[in-house]
Amino acid sequence: MSFFIDFLVIFLTFVVGLYSYYQYAFSYWRKKGVPYPEPSIPFGNWCCKSDEYIGFKIKKRYDEFKTKGHKHVGFYFFTSPSYVPIHPDYVKRILATDYRCFADRGFYYNEKHDPLSAHLFHLENERWKKVRAKLTPSFSSAKIKLMFPSLLGVARQLQTAVDDYFVKRTPIDCKEMFACFTTDVIGSCAFGVDCNSFENPNNDFRRYGKRITGTLTKANTLGSIIALANKSLARFLNVTVTPSEMTKFFVGLVKDTIEYREKNNVTAKDFMQLLIVQKCNEDPSERFTVEEMAAHTFIFFFAGFETSSSTMTFCLYELARHPSLQDKVREEINAVLAKHDGHVTYDAEFLETLDYKVPGTDVTINKGTSVMVPVLGLHYDAEYYPNPHCFDPERFSEESKKTRHSFTYLPFGAGPKSCLVSIVFYAAFKHAFGFWDRANVPCIKASFPFGTSENPFSRREYIGFRIKRRYDQFKASGHKHGGLYFFACPVYLPVYVDYIKNIMAKDFRYFTDRGVYCNEKIDPLTANLFFLAGDRWKTIRTKLTPAFTSSKVKTMFPILVQCGRHLERAMKEICTKDVEFEAKQISSCYTIDVIGSCAFCLDINSFTNPENEFVKQGEMYFRDTLSDYSKLKSLW
After folding, report:
1. Residue (of 345, 270, 283, 286) closest to 131 by Cα position
2. Beta bridge partners of 486
3. Exposed/middle/buried for residue 304 (C-beta within 10 Å: 0-12, 13-18, 19+)
4. How far apart (Å, rounded) are the C-alpha atoms in residues 380 and 410?
5. Which of 117, 192, 548, 627 is most exposed, with minimal Cβ within 10 Å?
6. Between 225 and 78, whose confidence is greater?
């Protein structure tokens, strides 16, 4: 009996003590006079079971407290207080003006037991400052230009994949397509690995990319909760947030890459090579360990994979929904890229602070209090962006931007902790669009993302007229040639007749390929004489040429005469009935009969049987497949 009473006393003491601790912790914002939503035990203002994205949770609170006229609000994550600025001036001070007081993000990391967690996004204080100083030179314009060949190689793989989709007429999963593209870009630029996820969608990089953005194991989920709730406890327990298999893969990949390059004296123009150079620094304090290199390449992968692919996917989605705004959007993107360097966004940043007094108030934010910037709240605030849920590029015109606070738009972050990685992607387009300028060839100003081509998803003008407009434009300016861009790929347009003669006849050996996609294995009908390239074209052309000699063609005359009789009877019938006829349809039936007879030895007679397979397939192919394919391939 006494044991039961002792246990009950201990239990009640624990419960009362725990309750008292929560009540004391939950009094933090009340004592400081900062408005806050009522917290609950044990999660504070956060429910771990909720499927709602954290950015939308913060946005709800932002909207709630801004409606009440507050300039800031306090939250509790378990018992830890978190400060959320609402007024843009407060956001600006935290991210830029008074950045020195908010130097850390407050995330848990453990270099020994979870090496991939010790990357630039998680590091703190002097450790972050030193690593940032080491990595920043790696993202200078000169260093990034070294990666352009890798970027353009991946872009060509994307173009080939898109060509393949349109040839096959299959639906495109844009999210998956862009995920493959960003995976290949990061694999190539960060690790020097040719992933080619379009042909090998189950490669290791794609698998781990899906795992990064997928569901964590129960152990890793529990570790993440502990790490967010109490960093000190997480360090005491040696919590690992990164799955061990993922750590083993990235650390092993870095080790193997270093060993191979050092053993074979190989250098590459990628991020890994820049880290290897830093690893061999004469000053021991400036060197990177293998684990540090793995962590920094991992965050390169993590930061650029999902963010970039999702952004590109939503970009296409909005363009598809608002075709009338596409031209205006391209112009605005060009203006933004010309004025600003791009950075990857993070919807919420946790910043560990020094003691800081909020300007214009009596509130002091104590050291150890996290700060969450309500990015979604600011971006969807009707005060700054009227009708925020509507797609309206005009809100980013120079005139509109002047009317609102500069810190109400934070997709790329702000201040010294902006991400370094995404500049690589924008720099690639900037460099690519300068190709003809560097070659001293007159060119039309390129527009992001389609270059000088029209929107590939519009059907407003036939390709021949587009080319003619560019021809007239260059010739009227007195130029003998011009440069165009299909997306980021440069295309040469001869205007002077002698230049055309040189390309098509005199110097033909330099221009043997049409540059059109073909795949004999997967899409055998594309492997025809018009699409083939190099020696394969030469061999087939040599084989087929004898079939078109005068003597061989003469043997087909009886067949042609028979098709002519079908045409004659059809015309007589039309004249007898005295009805209107479609000349294009009559001509199509005749040419189908000629081709069917001469090529396949079939008496089709499309005039009496207009629904035969040849007619249907011909109409479908030239109306859809070739039309769309040519629009994407040559939109000038």
Report:
1. 286
2. 451, 489
3. buried
4. 12
5. 548
6. 78
Residue 457 backbone dihedrals phi, psi, to 5 degrees: -100, 0
Q: Is the dihedral of CA 250, 252, 253, 257 positive or negative?
A: positive
- Strand residue runs (E) in 478-526: 481-486, 489-494
Q: Could you count the other beta carbons within 10 Å of the beta carbon of residue 568?
A: 11
Provide the 8-state DSSP code for 358. P
Tokens 């994205």, residue located: 53
Residue matched to tokens 């830093």: 278
Can you tell me the mean pLDDT for 5-14? 81
Instruction: Tell me the one-letter amino acid at 337.
Output: L
Residue 407: both structure tokens together: 């810190």
With b for 16 or more beta-carbon neighbours within 10 A and e for fewer, the 6-32 pattern comes to: eeeeeeeeeeeeeeeebeebbebbeeb
DSSP 8-state symbol, 524: G
Three state DSSP letters for 538-573: HHHHHHHHHHHCHHHHHCCHHHHHHHHHHHHHHHHH
Task: Give CA–CA dist 170/349, Å, rounded.
Answer: 40
Return the closest-CA partner of residue 45 out of 64, 66, 28, 61. Answer: 61
DSSP annotation of 509 reads G
Under 8 Å between Cβ of 373 and 346: no
Which of helix, strand or coil describes residue 115? helix
The tokens of 171 are what?
């639906």
* Four-residue CA torsion sign, 188, 194, 195, 199: positive
φ/ψ of residue 119, rounded to 5: -105, 180
Domains present along the chain, CATH in parentheses: 2-86 (no CATH), 115-342 (1.10.630.10), 433-511 (no CATH), 549-633 (no CATH)
565 CB-contact burial (10 Å; exposed 0-12 / middle 13-18 / buried 19+): exposed
Say whether 419 counts as a known binding-site residue: yes
Which residue in the block uniquely carries the two structure tokens 């009969």? 593
Q: How many residues does the chain have?
A: 636
Find out whether 481 and 441 touch, Cβ atoms under 8 Å. yes
pLDDT tens by residue, 406-465:
767 666 555 545 444 444 444 444 444 455 555 566 776 666 666 666 665 555 666 667
Helix (H) or strand (E) holding 263: helix 244-264
Q: Which of 190-194, 598-602, 616-620 has the lowest mean pLDDT?
A: 616-620
Give the pair of three-digit tokens for residue 283: 């000053």
The secondary element (H helix, E strand) that includes residue 81 is strand 80-85
* 190 backbone dihedrals φ, ψ, rounded to 5°: -95, -40
- Side-chain half-sphere of 507: how many Cα atoms within 13 Å? 8
User: From its phi and psi, is residue 69 left (phi > 0), alpha (psi between -120 and 50) or beta?
Assistant: left
How far CA 539 is from CA of 526, 535, 542, 548, in Å, comes to 16, 6, 5, 16
